[in-house]
Design a protein that fits this description.
The protein has 3 helices and 19 strands. It is an alpha+beta fold and 289 residues long.
Length: 289
């Protein structure tokens, strides 16, 4: 019995030893860990971000720059973390992520700037990013990245009617764009017309898009027009050129079958009166003087 109690005591001491060792290991690991969880309100899905938050808006397909300024030159290691999946992106000036679109732009102009660059941003890159400094206490700043998807509009679409011989003005406006496009082309029936030497047709770039002008429209100017920018969804408009109405055939010797019923009736009455007046004797023949 005495031997059994001694064995139980030894087992309890060994168990307590492992528990204390595990707790001490967790404490040391959390102290050395560069990513610390944020305290969030219980029962809510949103986090409480303890630190300055920068709002950054970038256009899909462009480059996003997330700022992280450090005023203490003797601060520790700088890291960037993507909050939604706790992914460590950079460690100091080196990229830790396997995604080559991420990099650090480090500059020293009075304050240390460890900006995170994301090349060719996609809609899935939106979210909160954390810049963390392993100082004591730990310094943190955040950047909320929003991604916009630019698109084009042509006022008057989807159908635009113009009279033959009048001027045509089409304006392509870029919406939700954060930077100018590398190119913006106009197409008519699928054929680019920006550089065509077509008389009366002119293309001008504007701050928000492009303008296509046609001096005197012809039937050949009708069709589907497309405005396509390098960084925005294209826009379309169908242009209908209304040809001038032809003059009545009676006025230029055309086919009488094209005459309207009113003109035919009028011509018939004139012919009938002429025939009747030819057959009726004049007053001088009935009553000679």
């Amino acid at each position: 019995m005495k031997t059994l109690l001694i064995l139980v005591g030894l087992l309890l001491e060994i168990h307590l030893y492992f528990i204390e060792s595990h707790a001490k290991h967790q404490q040391e690991s959390s102290a050395k860990n560069v990513v610390e969880p944020l305290n969030g309100p219980e029962g809510k899905g949103e986090e409480v971000l303890e630190g300055p938050i920068s709002e950054v808006v970038a256009q899909k397909g462009s480059m996003a720059i997330l700022p992280c300024k450090i005023t203490d030159p003797g601060a520790g290691m700088i890291t960037w973390v993507r909050r939604k999946d706790r992914q460590l992106l950079t460690l100091g000036a080196n990229r830790h992520s396997i995604d080559k679109r991420f990099s650090v732009r480090h500059t020293n102009t009075g304050t240390l700037d460890w900006a995170l660059e994301i090349q060719t941003v996609q809609l899935g890159d939106a979210g909160i990013y954390e810049c963390q400094v392993t100082s004591h206490p730990i310094q943190r700043s955040f950047a909320r990245l929003k991604i916009t998807e630019a698109y084009s509009i042509i006022p008057g679409a989807p159908d635009l009617h113009v009279k033959q011989g009048s001027s045509l003005r089409l304006e392509c406006q870029l919406m939700a764009a954060t930077e100018p496009p590398q190119y913006l082309f106009w197409y008519r029936q699928g054929r680019m017309i920006n550089y065509d030497d077509e008389p009366g047709v002119k293309v001008e770039l504007t701050k928000s898009g492009s303008i296509l002008m046609v001096n005197k429209t012809k039937p050949a100017h009708g069709g589907n027009y497309t405005c396509k920018a390098s960084n925005a969804k294209p826009a379309y408009v169908m242009v209908h050129v209304i040809e001038e109405e032809e003059k009545p055939a009676a006025m230029h010797g055309g086919d009488r079958r094209n005459l309207s019923p009113a003109i035919l009736a009028s011509n018939f009455l004139v012919t009938l009166l002429a025939a009747v007046s030819w057959r009726i004797p004049s007053f001088t023949s009935l009553y000679p003087t």
